[in-house]
Amino acid sequence: MKQKLVIIGNGMAPGRMLEELFERAPGLYDVVIFNAEPRVNYDRIMLSPVLSGEKLYEDIVIHGDDWYARHGVTLHKGAKVTGIDRTAKTVTSANGVTESYDKLVIATGSLPFIIPVPGHDLPGVLAYRDLDDVEKMLEATRRGGRAIVIGAGLLGLEAAYGLKRQGMDVTVIHIMPTIMERQLDPPAAYLLEKALNDRGIEIITKANTKRIVGEDKVEGIELEDGRIIDGTIVVMAVGIRPAAQLAKDAGVVTNRGIVVDDGMMTSDGAIFALGECAEHRGVCYGLVAPLYESAKTLADRLVGGASEYRGSVVNTKLKVTGINLFSAGDFAEGDDREEIVLRDATAGVYKRLVLKNNRIVGAVLYGETADGAWFFDMIKRGTDISEMRDTLIFGQAYQGGSPLDPTAAVAALPDDAEICGCNGVCKSKIVGTITAKSLTSLDDVRAHTKASASCGSCTGLVEQLMALTLGDSYNPSAVQPMCTCTELGHDDVRRLIVAKGLKTIPAVMQELEWKTSCGCAKCRPALNYYLVCDWPDEYADDYQSRFINERVHANIQKDGTYSVVPRMWGGVTNAGELRAIADVVDKFEIPMVKVTGGQRIDLLGIHKEDLPAVWADLGKAGFVSGQAYAKGLRTVKTCVGTDWCRFGTQDSTGLGIRLEKFMWGSWTPAKLKLAVSGCPRNCAEATCKDIGVICVDSGYEIHFAGAAGLDIKGTEVLGLVPTEDEALEHIVALAQMYREQGRYLERIYKWAKRVGLDEIRRQIMGDSEKRRGYFDRFVFSQKFAQVDPWSERVSGKDKHEFKPMAVVGMAEAAE
């Protein structure tokens, strides 16, 4: 009979412990989790990028609902545990849920410390520990004003940066003479303070808060020296304390935190503690790396192992875009210590190594942090550096005086060297996983090892490991710059467009430091698409940044003429439409009329100057552009379905027409083709389309990520829904997810492989709130997208595009 494992808390530490547990012994326990928050497990390290607008909550989810279901875990959301009965071996939550346990893990985390000054309980005084705090701060940013952050430690500065990025004025109050004094020495603190000042963040040091000013809400703060600073919110970021009261009330031994041994066991042999609430050898850790190390130990103990956690050496990185900072170990001065310092004022680089007995005991790096992992590894190992002392400060590439290329430097790292501090991933795990699973992309490595999946500061090291492991077969195209005009890849450009609120191509190029004045034919179409997608109601589509077919809304042929494809909803037409097409063919002497594979009629051989007149005649018959040229919705192919076919199970034609009329005009990263088949015989070939539907007796089976061009690929099943309305919502949400996450010119099947099929299913099939968000954003964008470009040109928009050069020149001369 299975034992029952109950976990109180659903943070990063118990999440990692369960990953290790399920990998070592799947099915050993029935697992029940109580989570005080009303959500799944997420990456708290990345709350700062969520606050600054660089990431969304969905981007930082670690374990979605499907993960818990897949592993048979019962997750009680919004269920704060109020009592532990050690005699009966039960836990009870505030909402009345009681569960018995054989083994219990307490992972209640920590609580923010609120300075008990007058006014600390006013509305507008906020902490900064979880997603609820971030959402309150984001709500405050919409009202504007000044944010006052008390505390210039790691969290305080990240909060200040995020609030500034969201448009607020920000002042940071710090009681000590220098900021981040626990992690930085004064010179590094000076450089950091200067960089934050340059970003518009005011920092006041040696300042003590006397009271928070306001009657019914925050209006500012008063300092001990009498200064009053106006503000609309106050963020307390002065420290945390372990949330140990629940264990203490149950009679478990506590000190500052819940006291545990080297196996993470408390004074009760059936109860363990993990994470920020635990106190190990007198230390309570607040950074994720030691929590992951102890989580691994606990997982081993739960499967009968005997591994021991001996404590951790920690390092610190600041998650502020554009500021590179690394700190590790002990950098205090002492008679038995010496230091090596490198300063480059022009480049803004400062490095300091603190040595004791020819071993590094502390390191502070500012401006250039690539060697942080190497220095940190030597601190943990106590490496004797006497033979490389003269060149040590210059980093691993110069040890012994001989420059190494970056790959060789990574090759020199030992197998157990930590590469990703956020997730506790060592070199051997990354290399072994790449080899065992034949991984070829950074996204694959992130998905399977979590290395570089959090703050991203170790991305360069991971890429170097991939190059080392894969050799010539390594293709880093997924992380290459989008073109020679920039160092940024597509994903970073998309992220920064939203985070910085960039709404024009010139703004993007200026803020993201484009190397060319106006971009190139590779980046301008991509930027144009990203801006159209992200700001549908504000960005004015720049048709000059589109390829020729999209500029003139027809397909250019090899002889310089064009083809025109009028839209036929779901492939259905009638006698009136066919007569109109025939009349246009006769009038303009169109040499070729052809039925396409997408159930449309293609008129080929039209001269450019005739295009507006052709469109005008087709428009009178009710046609709009079929957008056969577009990086957007092309066609929705259908079979006749239940209206005519004796095998049909649903109205496939009706659904196809509904989808096409709902979705036409939308721009997508690459062309998008749909199909709806009325039964599993699949006459509309839905299983090789970007998105397809197979109608069955029980409803609508949605497929996606197929291809039938240069690559031949069958679709993947997204899921089954019972009604036509649900089918439409799921398909539209899927298309919007692709629109928001796809790289320009990346077909949906390549996007799906990169993002992960399970992740797409989780968001579209398993998360109704997320799906509805995608759906609503698509509907909003369609208000601005469903404008027929043919009728616009017929009315005279961009008319010069369709006049021969000689005619244009004569007209200008006449004027």
Structural class: alpha/beta
Q: If helices are DSSP runs of H or I spanning 4 or more residues, what is the number of helices?
A: 26
- Alpha-carbon distance between the termini? 93 Å
* Average pLDDT over all residues: 90
Percent of residues in β-strands: 15-25%
Unreliable segments of 5+ consecutive residues: 806-815
Q: Any idea what the shape is?
A: globular
Instruction: Evaluate the radius of gyration.
Output: 31 Å
**Biggest sheet descriptor:** 5 strands, parallel
Number of strands: 40
- Helical fraction equals 25-40%
- Could you give the order of strands across the largest sheet? 5-2-1-9-21
Please characterize this protein's 3D structure.
The chain is an alpha/beta fold and 815 residues long. The protein contains 26 helices and 40 strands. The strands form twelve sheets. It has a five-stranded parallel beta sheet, with no helix packed on it. Strands 11-18-12-13-14 form a five-stranded parallel beta sheet. A five-stranded antiparallel beta sheet has the order 23-24-27-26-25. α1 runs parallel beside α8 and α21 packs across α24. The longest helix has 18 residues. It is globular and about 95 Å long. It starts with a strand and ends with a helix.
